[in-house]
Every structure is written in C-alpha cells, then in structure tokens.
Amino acid sequence: MLEPVFVDTGYVLALVNEHDQHHAQAVLLSQHYDRRPVVVTDAVLPEIGNALSRLARPAAAQIIADFRESAGSTVVHLTP
C-alpha cells in the first residue's frame, strides 16, 4: 500500500487557481502523488470553502464533498 499524503489548504488553492504562483508546482505534485491515499484534517475543509467561496463556490463544495466521500481520502477530526 502506498503511503498517504497530507493535504493542506495552500496546496488545494494552488491546484485549482491557475493564477496562483504555486499552481505549476501543485500540478506537478498532484501528478507525482497520483493514486496515493490522502489525509486532510476537518479544519482544512472550511478553510478551502472560505478561500474559494467568492471565486469558485461550486468547485469548493465539490472539493469538500470529494474529500469527505472518497474512499481514497481520510478526514482526521481534530480534538482540543
């Protein structure tokens, strides 16, 4: 089994925003880590939603749903 990759907000934003200064690097990373399991915290999901709410609300909703529903991703719930 492939080792999981932690995904943070900055990566997702760079990946979906072609004008982001880190977009090309994010695309390369997505190709390199393709098919690996993904780990994300439940704190990252609203950050993605907030950051993309004006720019790409439907895309933000889909990204969040994909993280929650995909068999290839795990959402880690943060505790105090």
Counting H and I runs of at least 4 residues, what is the number of helices? 4
- Poorly predicted runs are none
Number of strands: 3
Mean pLDDT across the residues is: 93
- Name the structural class: alpha/beta
Main β-sheet: number of strands, strand sense, barrel status? 3 strands, parallel
Question: Kindly, what is the distance between the CA atoms of the first and last residues, rounded to a whole number of angstroms?
Answer: 31 Å
Looking across the biggest beta sheet, what order are the strands in? 1-2-3
- Overall radius of gyration: 12 Å
Q: Choose one word for the global shape.
A: globular
Order of helices and strands: EHHEHHE
Q: Report the portion of residues in β strands.
A: 5-15%
| Proportion in helices | 40-55%
Tally of discrete structural domains:
1
Offer a concise description of the structure.
The chain is built from 4 helices and 3 strands.
Question: Can you give a write-up of this model?
Answer:
By secondary structure, the chain is of the alpha/beta class. The chain has one domain (5-76). It has helices at residues 9-16, 23-32, 44-52, 57-69, and strands at 5-6, 38-41, 73-76. It has a three-stranded parallel beta sheet with strand order 1-2-3, with helices on one face. The longest helix is centred in the C-terminal third of the chain and has 13 residues, at 57-69. The mean pLDDT is 93.
